[in-house]
Specification:
314 residues; alpha+beta; 2 domains
């Protein structure tokens, strides 16, 4: 099935990082502005009014600290997400522990920013009752972090569908072949030691020949031999096929054991290549190399894997 030269994902990828960072900055800025306005209105009705700069400092410091923790929260979600399928207890305990650590970091950064602003204004900042207030802050942080984690998970799932998520097709189940009557042993027959056949050699491991790729509402097949090169991407392996990228839920080390070692060779800690797709090997200083592929891309080759590359190529 042919695909457009520039699909939606390929058009989005060059600006993806700017959109993601900009989204969180805009979101936190808008939320901080709304919270600050509400807090200023609420401060006027208090018995002991506070200066406007203090109220603004409280709200802005909280959102700035939370914004700084977004990369950590994204990393936690990516790290714990694979546990959701088979290890629910570890998944929940991991998120609970992460929520406590994130809340402590949020409160510490928030109080630090407030103390710095108060010091610049020549006013003392009261840390009294900080631990007692942490319980209140933690309840708020849990709600906020849960919402943010859900948003990160939904966005990541959408990106997988947009980029294309691959999986190995299940091999057909093979039944046990019946024994022909001519070879069947007669009733009451007791074989001698000489008649006992030697144990058969274990069959070679089944290697996937095709992969099913889901991309939004479309499904299509790709052949294993069409893979140009592979790249480790956290808990996924990026399959680079004819200029397109698809993600497979596996580690690079485990996935390479399923591929033909005469065709696919690891050339870097996080890269492997199809030997038949290498166009040129460019030596670099220190024994490293750069592999130029037929699809126009280049793949790094570290010195420790050069011998394996030569052996596979030979």
């Amino acid at each position: 099935m042919s695909e457009p030269h520039k699909n939606l994902y390929e058009r989005y990828e060059p600006i993806r990082r700017y959109v993601e960072v900009g989204f969180w900055i805009v979101l936190m800025t808008v939320h901080a502005a709304i919270s600050t306005v509400v807090a200023l209105i609420d401060a006027r009705s208090r018995a002991v009014p506070r200066a406007n700069w203090e109220v603004v400092t409280w709200e802005v410091s909280s959102h700035v600290a939370l914004l700084a923790l977004v990369p950590v929260l994204v990393a936690v979600e990516r790290r714990l997400s694979p546990l959701a399928r088979d290890h629910w207890v570890r998944f929940l305990v991991g998120h609970l522990l992460a929520s406590v650590l994130l809340s402590l970091a949020h409160v510490a950064a928030m109080f630090g920013l407030r103390a710095a602003v108060y010091a610049a204004a020549g006013e003392p900042y009261d840390f009294g009752g900080a631990m007692g207030r942490w319980g209140y802050e933690y309840l708020k942080d849990v709600r906020v972090c849960a919402t943010m984690v859900f948003g990160v998970w939904a966005y990541r799932l959408f990106m997988l569908r947009l980029q294309g998520e691959a999986r190995v097709l299940d091999p057909p189940e093979e039944g046990v072949a019946p024994v022909p009557e001519a070879l069947a042993e007669p009733e009451g027959f007791e074989p001698s030691v000489q008649d006992v056949p030697a144990p058969a050699a274990p069959p070679p491991p089944a290697r996937p020949e095709r992969f099913l790729v889901r991309k939004l509402r479309r499904e299509f097949l790709i052949a294993a031999t069409d893979i140009d090169w592979l790249q480790a991407e956290g808990n996924y392996v990026g399959l680079h096929v004819n200029g397109h990228d698809y993600l497979l839920r596996a580690t690079l080390t485990d996935f390479l054991t399923q591929l033909d070692p005469a065709t696919f060779v690891r050339v870097h800690r996080s890269h492997a290549v199809n030997l038949g797709r290498i166009k040129e090997i460019e030596p670099l200083d220190g024994g490293d190399a750069r592999l130029h592929m037929h699809d126009g891309t280049s793949v790094p080759c570290s010195r420790r894997y050069r011998d394996a590359l030569r052996g596979g190529a030979g």
